[in-house]
Each structure stands twice: as C-alpha cells, then as structure tokens.
Amino acid sequence: MYEPATTEAFAEERLDLGHLKQHLGYFVRRLQITIFKDFIRELAPMRLRPAQYSVLLLIEANPGSSQAAIGRALGIERARLARLLHDLEERLWVERRSDSSDGRSHALFLSREGVKALARSKKLAARHEAYMTELLGGECRTALLQLLRTAGNRLNSPA
Amino acid sequence: MYEPATTEAFAEERLDLGHLKQHLGYFVRRLQITIFKDFIRELAPMRLRPAQYSVLLLIEANPGSSQAAIGRALGIERARLARLLHDLEERLWVERRSDSSDGRSHALFLSREGVKALARSKKLAARHEAYMTELLGGECRTALLQLLRTAGNRLNSPA
DNA sequence: TATTGTTATACTCTATAACTATA
DNA sequence: TATAGTTATAGAGTATAACAATA
C-alpha cells in the first residue's frame, strides 16, 4: 500500500497557507525578500545595500538635492539618511556641499569616484535584474513592474 | 512671470527616480512598506505583528505542525520562530505539545483563547485589506495578487 | 551524522526624541 | 515657529554560531 512512501511524501509536502492566501502583503513581502537577497548577494563586491544604491541613483538623477528631498523621495527617515550618507561620504563617493541659498541644507553630489563606483554597481544590478527576469519570466516581470508602478502612483498621489 | 510661485512649485516637485525606475525591487519594497504599515496600525489593538499573524494562520490551517515545518513554509528562521512562539505561548494563544512520534519536535496548536484572538485579528486584517483595496482599486489589487502568486510559485518551485 | 529546538550575538532597518543652526 | 541636519536609543527582522536532545 506504499504507506511508508506516502508518509514520507506527506512530511515533505507544503503546508496549507490557509487564510494567508488572501493577503496581498504576504506575497509582496516574500517577493521583496527574495529580490533583496539576490540584490545583496550580487552587489556584495561593492558592499552596497539596496538603500545605499537607491540613494546613489537619486543623487545621480538629481545632483544638488538636499538630504531632505532625497529622504522624502525614497521614504528614508532623515536620521537614517544622515548616517547612510556619512558612510558614503567616508568612502569618498558622495560630497556634501553647503547650500548658499539655505544655510541649513546640504547639496549632494557624486564624486568622480562615486560615479565610477555607481557605474560598476549598475552592472552588478543589471545582472541581478537579468537573473530575476530569468526566474520570473520576462512577461511576468514586465507585468509586475507595470502594476507596481501604478500601485505606487495611486498610493502616493493623495499624499 | 510667476517666478516665485514657480520656484516654490519646483521645491515641492517630485525628484526623478532615474535608473531606479527600472528596478522591480524598488517598487516591491515601497508597496510592502505601505501595506505593512497599515497592517501594523490596524492590528495594533491585538499587539500582533505581520509575522506573528502569519504564524497563527498557519497553525490554524495545519494544526499539529512542527516549528520546523511552519518556519520552512513561511521562510522564518527557526531561531526567530522559537522566540516568536515563546511570546505567543506566554499569551496563552499557542500550545506546544511534545510529538509522540518524534521526541525532538513540538506539535503546535491554537488554544481556545488563541482561536478567539485570531478571529478578532482576522476582522481587523479584513479592514486593512478593504482599505488597501480602496487605495489600489479592486482590479489593480486582484491583478497584483494573481501575479504575485504566480511569481511566488515560480521562485519557490525549483527549490 | 543530521535534525529539532533553544540561546546568544551582531547587523540592518525603523521609529523616536533631543539637540543645533538656520529660516 | 518651523525646517535641515545630527546624534542617540530602542525595537523588530535577519543571519550566524553554538549547544542539548533526539533521530
């Protein structure tokens, strides 16, 4: 009657997610963890975490921005951003210059080294994206990206 | 020429996300944070975090499961799950009984109080889902849920 | 040897509060 | 008074390693 085999198979069987299957947050969280783990693994040679990478990209796209503006755009608390930038400044990748028009603000720029480091990081990030695309399938990834942008717009526009 | 107004508007303008717009992980992370914040806010009366809630749901759907099985299903490290369950056991919501067939395992069950607490929590979680649906739009939410489940299956099936 | 569960440690991220200096 | 930036602290989540008990 294959009882032993059946028992073993049962032991390996996936558990029922139950009511969790109805929760968007559960699937979003699992996907986010998977993506970040792979990103962190791929970017490990640059010792760059996702938040640090996102800050570099925003400074690149918006040179001279204040810490407050970067923090608002990325949803990073100013206290945390201050320490994060301190680290990037120590690596000589980011420069904080005092803003002439507002003595409280720092204007942020990438240094030459920062530009080079970001270029290397982008190549690793592209490998990460390629691997995720391979796992998810190109159509699935594209559809997800589209939907998530829409969701982001709807969640942030009223604010 | 409206120069002052233009300057003010520019100061309030959203920054360019730059290359970040190409990264699935960025949008997934932002959505996950938004959803979890609302969940935590709504479930605050139960002092229940997302991970704790997911564990309760899995025990409900799979009574008698071991900690190892629950941890594998949810991707929670056994070390963390041990402390998480210790807390739920202290509240008298979860019971850990020794498994007769395997002396190493604990079989997990909801207590009567646990069942009641979970029922109350589900009502709050439903309010959270309703609010998120309101923000995202029902069609967007349904499409997202569908896509995220597909993504989850593709990411977990090879493992 | 491998697995289950526990304890402990360290690091990241998040959330506050308190403080300064500027506006 | 409000904002920009800094520092400090505490809590949650994650990743390890080490250990005892059991398989």
What does this 3D model show about the protein?
The structure is a homodimer of 159-residue chains. Chain A has helices spanning 3-12, 24-43, 50-61, 67-74, 78-90, 112-136, 138-156; strands spanning 94-98, 106-110. Chain A has a two-stranded antiparallel ribbon. Chain A has a single domain (23-137), classed as Orthogonal Bundle (Arc Repressor Mutant, subunit A), CATH 1.10.10.10. Chain A is 67% helix and 6% strand. The first copy, chain A, is globular, with a radius of gyration of 21 Å. The first copy, chain A, has 159 residues and is mainly alpha-helical. The longest helix of chain A is centred in the C-terminal third of the chain and has 25 residues, at 112-136. Chain A is built from 7 helices and 2 strands, in the order H-H-H-H-H-E-E-H-H. Chains A and B meet through helix 2, helix 3, helix 4, helix 6 and helix 7 of A and helix 2, helix 3, helix 4, helix 6 and helix 7 of B. The structure holds a DNA duplex (23 and 23 nucleotides).
CATH class designation of chain A: Mainly Alpha
Radius of gyration of chain A: 21 Å
Mean pLDDT of chain A: 91
User: Largest interface here, residues on each chain?
Assistant: A-B, 57 and 57 residues
Structural class by helix and strand composition of chain A:
mainly alpha
**Tally of individual helices of chain A:** 7
Largest sheet of chain A, described in full? 2 strands, antiparallel
- The coarse silhouette of chain A is globular
CATH topology of chain A: Arc Repressor Mutant, subunit A
